[in-house]
Write a structure and sequence with these properties.
CATH superfamily of the largest domain: Glucose Oxidase, domain 3
Bound molecules: flavin-adenine dinucleotide
Number of helices: 9
Family: Belongs to the GMC oxidoreductase family.
GO molecular function: flavin adenine dinucleotide binding; oxidoreductase activity, acting on CH-OH group of donors
Distance between the termini: 87 Å
Radius of gyration: 29 Å
Number of domains: 2
Largest sheet: 3 strands, antiparallel
CATH topology of the largest domain: Glucose Oxidase, domain 3
Protein name: Glucose dehydrogenase
Helix content: 25-40%
């Protein structure tokens, strides 16, 4: 941009914020801005954009203590802004694994960027759109936006009319992880060798263990991941609460495990309970206690479980 890159955190900025909640300290600069766009590879209908832009720049930075007038700044000390393009529906899959048996050793994280050509095509188009945006009359003439000198010099095909090859090369040099890693414990059916949790977030084959975080997403959401993670957490909490309410009053059955059943049997019970409408609509008392409601018809499995252990063994 054509304005000088002045450090903006000084007393005036501090006063502005403390007295009026205004000025550079009241903002995170251009990172507040994002945008989504459909590339020509996006799913038809335009409702699931496959490119997201993140913007950077105009961050509040500290002065080194000297007061320098804008006129003293070299022409090269201009404000930079950044436009980063994200491929929202990547097809390449990376992995995370242990590096060694040493528990303190950092894991191996292998992202496998661009293993699938799809992402490269999307990113090249995204870069073209960003380039066009930066080249609009308003940004170019009013704000003096020009490409950062020297950026991409090691890639052939740059200049005023950059080629697709230039953007491909640039993508390979400049691609970095976004902060939205997911899928290391994906949800899926038991028969899927890569699936870790079932639809109720229970780890396949391990009783009493759930994973409830961004790791369970089988594919990444089209956009930022914090809100979807909160939704996963809400669902997970609900699963745990429901299960607790369902089993809380089942007497000890003599098995070692309090619940005394495999996951499959739990599933069956769950379905029995939910299929019986009468049972679903049944009003529990405030302590979730069905003992006080002897007149209600209970599903057979509850009756069975309620049979005293001694009687059952006769
Ligand atoms: C720099 C950055 C910026 C981001 N910005 C955004 C954004 O603007 N918008 C958005 O939607 N998403 C954003 N994200 C993504 C979002 O934060 C994550 O998708 C989300 O937080 C994932 O939630 P999680 O519960 O899966 O994991 P986390 O939020 O990482 O939670 C894991 C928790 O486990 C704890 N933990 C780890 N190991 C142990 C252990 N051994 N014992 C006990 N506790 C442990 C950690 O301390 C942490 O609290 C950002 C991520 C990063 C890193």
């Amino acid at each position: 941009m054509k304005e000088p890159d002045l450090p903006v955190l000084d007393w005036a900025a501090a006063m502005d914020y403390m007295l009026k909640r205004e000025g550079p300290l009241s903002s995170t600069g251009m990172s507040q801005l994002t945008g989504m766009v459909n590339s020509k590879y996006a799913p038809a209908g335009g409702r699931q954009p496959d490119i997201q832009y993140f913007f950077g720049g105009y961050y509040a930075s500290c002065s080194d203590g000297n007061t320098i007038e804008p006129a003293q700044y070299a022409a090269t000390d201009r404000r930079n802004i950044m436009i980063a393009a994200i491929a929202l529906q990547p097809r390449s899959r990376g992995y995370i694994t242990l590096r060694s048996t040493d528990p303190t050793a950092p894991p191996v994280m292998q992202p496998n960027y661009f293993c699938d050509e799809h992402e490269m095509n999307v990113i090249v188009e995204a870069a073209r759109i960003a380039y066009r945006l930066a080249n609009t009359t308003l940004l170019r003439e009013k704000y003096g936006m020009v490409p950062t000198p020297g950026y991409g010099d090691n890639c052939p095909g740059g200049g005023a009319n950059p080629t697709d090859e230039f953007f491909r090369c640039l993508a390979q040099y400049q691609t970095a992880p976004e902060n939205h890693q997911v899928g290391t414990c994906k949800m899926g059916p038991r028969i899927d060798p890569m699936a870790v949790v079932d639809p109720q977030l229970r780890v396949h084959g391990i009783e009493g263990l759930r994973v409830i975080d961004a790791a369970i997403m089988p594919t990444i959401t089209t956009g930022n991941t914090a809100a979807p993670t909160v939704m996963v957490a809400e669902r997970g909490a609900e699963f745990i609460r429901s299960r607790h309410q369902l089993y809380k009053h089942i007497p000890f059955s003599g098995h070692r495990n309090y619940f005394g059943d495999s996951s499959q049997q739990d599933d069956d019970r769950w379905h029995i309970v939910h299929k019986e409408e009468k049972w679903v609509n049944w009003k529990w008392d405030r302590n979730w206690n069905w003992e006080n409601r002897r007149n209600e018809q209970k599903p057979n499995w509850i009756k069975k479980q309620n049979t005293p252990v001694a009687a059952a063994s006769n």
